[in-house]
Amino acid sequence: MKRNDNSILLIGEAGVGKTHYGAQLLKRLMKGDGRLQMDGAATNLAPFEAAMECLNEGMAADHTPTKTYVESVWPIVNVGGSKAELVWPDYGGEQVKAMSSTRRIPAAWRVRVLSAPAWILLVRLQQARVSDDIFSRPLNELKGAGSDNREVQVSDQARLIELLQMFLYVRGAVCTEPLQSPGLCVLLSCWDELGTSGQPAAVLQQRLPMFASFLASTWADPLVLGLSALERPLSARNRDPGYASRGPEQFGYIVLPDGERSPDLTLPIQHLLASGTEH
User: Is residue 246 included in any domain, yes or no?
Assistant: First the structure.
């Protein structure tokens, strides 16, 4: 791992579980029984400490305010002794949706897009709207349609593609051949709610086929994993005694490409940082 290639651009709209994953990841790093562990004092932990306190009580964390953007720096070391400083953000997911709707990327986000050598995109399939659009509904089906036909909106998978294309344009990435950089990991969050034991890439292909095809044709080696940061739904108002008594660090898992589960929530980070040293 390189010290100058240590930031990760975490991309996710509201409700995909960014804060919960950040809090659980921080707990894993502090516990030190995964591929990565903390190697010194972290900075700017306020938003994650609040989330960890909620999880310790068996409750879900509050939604991150829309205008919030906080970067926390975590010094980490892997099992081989290589060190890095991981820059991990917490922000209101509405910022990402606003970029999609306005087709404008704020200056601060442009800097993040340019500087981060690796991207993590959190996608919650349960809240993805896959309605008819010009990509899923052939034009011949529209022939003879009445003028009172409802408005056809762009589906969420088309919007996700456009968002990544905007980021790649800012980065100046030319897609004449599959991209090696930036590294990309797609985390299918809240996996426990999907009720499937399939492989993450296959589930993504089934649920969002156009988006999955875009990833495969744009990146040389996109990684698709499942993520259940909490392993079970928690309420922001009602305490889960069993969760609190066992401790949140006993919950959560990553679904690997072959469908197997691992309790090591640091695996996506380890993969991206390790890949960054190879390019």
Answer: yes
What backbone torsions phi and psi does residue 139 show, to the nearest 5 degrees?
A: -60, -30
Cβ-in-10-Å burial (0-12, 13-18, 19+) of 129 comes to exposed
Give the model's pLDDT for residue 1. Answer: 39
b/e for 151-161, b at 16 or more Cβ within 10 A? eeeebbbbbbb
Range of the domain at 16: 8-132+172-276
Is 232 inside any structural domain?
Answer: yes
Angle made by CA atoms 268, 224, 96, in degrees to the nearest 5: 80
- Residues of the chain whose pLDDT is less than 50? 1-4
Q: Which of 90, 46, 100 is nearest to 69 (CA)?
A: 90
State the Cα–Cα distance between residues 9 and 89, nearest whole angstrom: 8
Q: How far apart are CA 156 and CA 5, in angstroms?
A: 31
pLDDT at residue 130, rounded to an integer: 66
Report the C-alpha gap between 163 and 99 in whole angstroms: 8
What is the widest separation between alpha-carbon atoms in the chain? Answer: 67
Rounded Cα distance, 211 and 214, in Å: 5
What does the pLDDT look like over 149-203, one tens digit per residue?
555 566 788 889 999 999 999 998 877 788 988 999 999 999 999 989 899 999 9
Tokens of 72: 């926390």
Predicted local distance difference test score (pLDDT) of residue 69: 83
Confidence (pLDDT) at 200: 97
Instruction: Compute how many other C-beta atoms are within 10 angstroms of the C-beta atom of residue 5.
Output: 18
Does residue 46 fall inside a structural domain?
Answer: yes
Count how many domains the chain has: 1
Domain presence at residue 165: no
- The CATH number given to whatever domain includes residue 183 is 3.40.50
